[in-house]
What does this fold into?
Amino acid sequence: MAILRRFGFLALASVLVLAAAGCSTPQTRAKERASTFERLKPEDQRMLLQGKIREGLDEDAVYVALGNPSRMTRGQKEGKREYSWIYSRLETRTIPSYRPRVVHLKDGRAVVYDDYVPYYDTYLVDAFEVMFRDGKVIGWKEL
It folds into this structure.
């Protein structure tokens, strides 16, 4: 229960979800999308297994290389469907916090000490964006 108070339920849930998602690798995702993976050129297969992408790849190939995005954006430009897959990472910051602790001395006096009890704020930060037009990669960037 103390861990829930310290990290907060949402942060703990985020860590558990991301830890479970962390079990996925390009190799396991290539097996999931075997038909997509097998139709690619050998050099593209090697690239995807290294977690890299290039322009012109489709969504399935990007999934093999990078996995599921954290979120997606959608739009349209010049009559063509444009959208992005955004990949996030967890960041944690320490928030200093002090809690008073009373110590009763043998002579009857009470002394107050400040115990350092930091709080940890864990949150998602957008890290990488893959841009698509009509189902094909048109670019990517670090955020």
